[in-house]
Amino acid sequence: MAAADSPSAALRRRDLCSRGIRLAGKMRSDVIDLLDTYVERQGLDASASVVAVEGVPAAAAERWDKQTGTQRLLDNLAAYRAFRALLAQMLEEQREQLGEADAALGQALAAVLLQVSAFAYHLEELLRLESRGPPSEEGAGPPPLPHLGLFERKLRGLGVLRELAQWAVRSARDLRQLAKPGPGSSSAPSPAESP
Amino acid sequence: MFSAWNWVAHGLYLLLNIFFLEVSGGLVQSCGHIIPESPVLALGSNFTALCILNESCLDFGNIYANQIIWKIKNRVVPKEQYREINRTVSSVTFNDTSSLATPLTCNILADGQIEQNIYGITVTIGLPPEKPKNLSCIVHQVSKLTYPMTCTWNPGRHTFLDTHFRLKYRWPQENFPDCIPKDVNNSCTITDVQFFVNLEVWVEAANALGKAESDPLVLDPIEIVKPLSPHNLSVNSGILPTVLKLSWENRISAAVMKLKFNIRYRIIGDTNWMQVPPEDTASPRTSFSVQGLRPYTEYVFSIRCMKEDGVGYWSDWSEEKTGVTTEDKPTKGPPIWRIIDASRSPASWTVHLMWKALEPFEANGVILQYEVTVRAKSSLSSPPEKYSVNTTNLTLKLPNGTYEVTVIARNRVGASPPSVLLIPASNSKAPVKNVRTLPKDGKLWVGWTAPNSYVLKYVIEWCLVSNSSDCITEWQNEPGNVQGTYLKGDIKPFKCYLITVYPLYADGQGSGQSVKAYLQQDRPSKGPTVQTKKVGKAEAVLTWNHLTVDEQNGFIRSYTIFYKTIDGNETAVTVDPSKTEYTLSSLTSDTLYTVRMMAYTDEGGRSGPDFTFTTQKFGKGEIEAIVVPVCLAFLLIVLLGVLFCFNKRDLIKKHIWPIVPDPSKSNIAQWSPQVPAKHNFSSKDQMYPEGSFTDVSVVEIEADDKKSFSEQDLKPFDLLKKEKSTSEGHSSGIGGSSCMSSPRQSVSDSDEGEATQNTSSTVQYSTVVLNGYRDQTPVQVFSRSESTQPLLDSEERSEDHAGGGDSATQRQQYFKRNGGQDETNTDRPCFERTKQITPANEGDLVGFAQLQISGQSSQPLGIELEKNTQEAALSDVLQTSTEGQTVRPETVEGSPLSVDEMPKSYLPQTVRQGGYMPQ
């Protein structure tokens, strides 16, 4: 924690939190826009319910308010690494499926993928500031996806995006919690701030 | 012979080896090559090239490295730069590649004569790339989700080589593909960037001589965003007439950035923008109410935005939208003034009321009408007259008096406060003083000194004074606490304005004080046209007309008259501008002068046309002074001549047309003293009919017989003189040749009554002339002669004799009587007689008086009397100086000749005097 105690580390941490929160906000905004585009382009029903997608971490946490800051960061990092892989696969599938015909959807997916990647970088940096260091990605990614049909892939994509939107909200709250000054940065947030 | 053929064969072989030594598979193999092949060299560096000859050429061509010649283009490289490394390799070294050029060739002198090319290379010279500098980036928002980032940099110096620039960027954990500029070398655009992650950006420049990288730029692209301006701006009028509400849409997500705004606005037609205080719009929003606006005014609005924290760039201003505030009541009444025309009737006025339309910011709406109320102050009981007009003037005919005029402007919302103008019966209050003007800042400022009394307000009237147009009055109101103002109108330069200031009091009005002014003066547009009114010998009176107001362009400060002769210097005279006439003096007479005139304002002068005139040769009165005396002298001479001729008329007459007596008409019988001549005339005609001669005798006289004029002979002559002094008037001569006695003595005068009475006792001869001489009317005259001598041949002869009296041998002929006596008297008798009279006693004067009576004219006599008096005096002198010669005084006086010649003139005198010629 020595690094976290230095003023520069505190500034760096605050800056990372601040920009992470805004990035999460933008990511959510973009994902919601992307959802609309995706549903439209993929011919899906916006109200279609999607069961939990395998490999997609759930944003909801039963004891969110009890989590420490590090735990929050680790959960976030695991989730976004998973999203990064899922979105990359979706982008690949989308290119295979639509080719360059729907460049806007591909660009939007690529932009969200970049943001997910950037957010993961934020989380890794914060973990470094926590003197924790990011865990290795080896084995941390989602298991190899089973071969799915086209429609299933569409539904899975819809589920990924919806969950990502949820995570964006949660991540913003997690980072706000982390950004609060004081030694209790890694302590559990108050129940009032729980989502 | 063999040697020659050998050389020829060798040469051919060499050529074939050099150029086409061996053709194998379409490739040409040369006799050597250069290392390095087509190098790229840094400008200013040193460079060494090697030319390596093929071994095969050595055997057949007999060529070696020492025969190699290096050339740059066609220029031979100095031998000092060569080095023969071995028999097949030659090197050349350049210390500075700037002296290099393409191609660099390796050549050889075959047989020491023929230069042949072995190989050549292309040398490329350039510079390594410089480190790109001043890298900067900006993210332009082009749509809601698209944020391309454009980075620019300074590529550095020109490298003369193909240099590639790449914009590199990366996240700490992720690299992105390079951005490669298209067509330019100093900017590149990354199509999309992600915010909230630091991006490291740098530029890499590379060419054949190396590569260089700029300093990296680490930034979060969100900090360099230039967002799109808000759009769909709308302006809505609110409830209040001073408020407009703006609404818009932002085109950047709040999740990306929070915005702050600038709102600017202006009145339409105005160029100056006003801005809503930035602190009022420093937070994210999509609407704003602008307050403090003018009622019924159209405004133009525009808005822009940027990141809330001020990091980044302002967007462009949005499209402009207009909105109009609602109407409100006019804030003030229209300024009012009047022009009173009292010329038509002394008892009533024609009052032209005029007021100015309210400014838009005062009208606060559309003025629908003006309500004018005129109330006579003198008769408070009478109701006020009310008028509703749509124009800004009203003409009323009012009796003389004091009136209060009120004007109200009304729009849809309500009425303005009233404007009140008091029209007094007379402008009896104190006027302003010291009205002055001053051009300032392109406007005309009018100042005045306020009167001592409290002034409610001032009215400044002005109009443009011009010959071509009437004075159209403009006016403006000023509050009573000022003493100067700028004229609010289109005041033109170089034009004359008449400005009048009126003070308005609560109970009256002061008379106007006027001043003329120019906003800007210029030289007059033309000069005065000068001309002469009167030209004299040494002076000329010049006149000119004043320039018209339109020509003056300013206040005429002076006139200057320039005048000169053709070859003389120009003389300038400054004249007061009020004058229209000037007299040039001290001019040279009879000289051509050129005169012109300049009119000066404060800004300079302009000359009028030249005018020439010539001064007169003579001054006023000079001609008269010369001509009058000359004329007088001429007249005098003429008069004297006339007098002279009159005096000498007998002589002249005799010379020109002498009267020849008609002997045929002579009648001696009738010519008797006892018989009155009158009685004989009729009988004479009867007795001597025309053309008949009676008795003609001719007497010849030796007139020059001096001996006959002895002293003794002269004695009786003296006696005769005495007798003559008393009776001369009674004597008569033929032909009337005596100037004094001719009228009576002349036959033609025929005063026979007197002639008869004057007949002396001496023998008298009669002469009868039948025919007239020359043009004279023949007169049959009975004439008598006092001479006792017989008649001579003719009077001409005697005349000749008298003229040449000194001729002793000349004979004189008398026609019946000795007319020569009379003829000799033509010159002398008068003088002789006066000579006799002057020394004589009073008895002699009696005779002279008789002569006067007998004369036809008294004037010659008078003159002759004067002459006689002078001559008498002279004779006195002579008498006293020549004592003992008193016998001959008349001789001395009778002729101006010398004393020695005197005796020559005795004969005719004696004949005349005595009427007797001794024979």
Give a verbal description of the structure.
The complex is a heterodimer of chains A (195) and B (919). In chain A, helix 2 packs antiparallel against helix 4, helix 3 packs antiparallel against helix 4 and helix 3 runs antiparallel to helix 5. The C terminus of chain A is likely disordered. Chain A is built from 5 helices and no strands. The radius of gyration of chain A is 17 Å and the shape is elongated. By secondary structure, chain A is an all-alpha fold. The two termini of chain A are 28 Å apart. The longest helix of chain A is centred in the first third of the chain and has 36 residues. In chain B, a hairpin with an 8-residue loop joins strand 31 and strand 32. Chain B contains 17 helices and 53 strands. In chain B, the strands form 15 sheets. In chain B, strands 15, 16, 18, 19 and 20 form a 5-stranded antiparallel beta sheet that branches. In chain B, strands 38, 39, 41, 42 and 43 form a 5-stranded antiparallel beta sheet that branches. Chain B is 20% helix and 33% strand. Chain B is α+β, with helices and mostly antiparallel strands and 919 residues long. The interface between A and B is medium-sized, with 20 and 15 residues. Chain A: InterPro entries: 4_helix_cytokine-like_core, Ciliary_neurotrophic_fac_CNTF. Chain A: It holds the Pfam family CNTF. Chain A: Keywords: Cytoplasm, Developmental protein, Differentiation, Growth factor, Neurogenesis. Chain A: CNTF is a survival factor for various neuronal cell types. Seems to prevent the degeneration of motor axons after axotomy. Chain A: Belongs to the CNTF family.
Alpha-beta content class of chain B: alpha+beta
Number of helices of chain B: 17
Radius of gyration of chain B: 71 Å
Main sheet record of chain B: 5 strands, antiparallel
The number of E-state strands of chain A comes to 0
Poorly predicted ranges of chain B? 1-27, 675-695, 702-788, 790-919
Approximately how much helix is present in the residues of chain A?
55-70%
Shape verdict of chain B: flat
The strand count of chain B comes to 53
Element pattern of chain A in H and E: HHHHH
**Number of helical runs of chain A?**
5
Shape of chain A: elongated
How far the N terminus sits from the C terminus of chain A, by CA atoms, comes to: 28 Å
Helix content of chain B: 10-25%
* Residue windows where pLDDT falls under 50 for at least 5 positions of chain A: 184-195
Q: DSSP strand (E) fraction of chain A?
A: under 5%
User: Can you summarize the main beta sheet of chain A?
Assistant: none
- Which class do the helix and strand fractions of chain A yield? mainly alpha
> What is the assembly state of the chains in this entry?
heterodimer
